[in-house]
Amino acid sequence: MGYQQTGQECIRRRIESACTTNQDCSSAVTNSECANNVCACNAGFYSTNARTTCLGRRIGDSCTNDVECSRLIENSACYERKCGCIATYYASDDNSQCFRRLRDWEIALIALGALLFLVLLALLICCCCFIPWWGRRGNKKKQKTRKPLHPPEPRYVAGPVPALAPPPLMATMAPAALMVPYAPPSPLPEARQKSPSDVFVAVPDHFVAIRKVNGRLALARVEAADYLNHRIMVNFLSPIPEADNMFELDPKKEIVSDSDVAHYPLKVVRRGEYFQLVTKEI
Questions:
Q1: How far is the C-alpha of 252 from the C-alpha of 109, rounded, in Å?
Q2: Where do transmembrane segments lie in this chain (predicted)?
Q3: What radius of gyration do the chain's Cα atoms show?
Q4: Quick check: 33 and 39 in contact, CB under 8 A?
Q5: Which of 92, 141, 142, 236 could form a disulfide with 97 if both were Cys (CB 3.0 to 4.6 A apart)?
């Protein structure tokens, strides 16, 4: 099979050789068959000039009918004796296939999707840049509007006051700036409302010089006053070494007679946690 006898020789069959069965042809030439007792290429194939090979048709190859093209290439037909893709289809780079062209609405939909993707990407980038900037801006605003914190003023409850021991000698509490001439004690401001049940009444921030038993003056802040018994509740201030008239408030409260007030009032300003005496040195 695949060969035929010519005289005393066996010659391999070619396209257009005589045959009786399909195997006579396909054994010699792939993709061939026996048609009308003659070897021929199968539909969709064509023979080379040597008639020894059957090649599959591609777009642009010669043809006589549509089947010769569409048998191997889908969506193709024979146009003017050449294989070509049908309408709305185009040939691949190797002319072995036909691909459908995109419709106008499909192209528009793809373009719209790409545009929406770019817009969303731009919004995401803007948000990533804007959120940290807004956070820094808010922190700066808070720092500008933040008010300094001050310790709360003391609160007093009416009632009897326990007897306290006399204050210790505080010779180091009075710097040279407090060595002021003796002045008669000035009366403390009258309470806005007196009640027999009230012993001590809170007094606004007043700073006075208290004469100690050793004759030295000590700076004190008046916290409350007992107007009936002529007493005042004070916090003494300790001077800070090597500081210009700077004092630190002693949290311990002491009760002294208002007759011990040597100078009233004194101008004192708060410097953070400390106090500074503002007076003319003598």
A1: 82
A2: 107-134
A3: 57
A4: yes
A5: 92
Cα torsion angle, 238, 242, 245, 248, sign: negative
Q: What is the pLDDT of residues 134-183, one digit of tens each?
A: 777 767 766 666 555 555 555 544 555 444 444 443 333 444 444 444 44
- Enter the pTM of the model: 0.33
Which residue matches tokens 């026996």? 34
Residue type, 112: L
Q: Is the preceding peptide bond at 154 cis, omega within 30 degrees of 0?
A: no
Residues in contact with 233: Cβ distance below 8 Å, sequence separation at least 6, in sequence order? 156, 161, 200, 222, 223, 224, 225, 226, 253, 254, 255
210 in Cβ contact with 218 (< 8 Å): yes
Rounded to whole angstroms, the Cα distance separating 274 from 252 reads 16
**b/e for 195-206, b at 16 or more Cβ within 10 A?**
eeebbbbebeeb
User: What type of residue sits at position 245?
Assistant: N
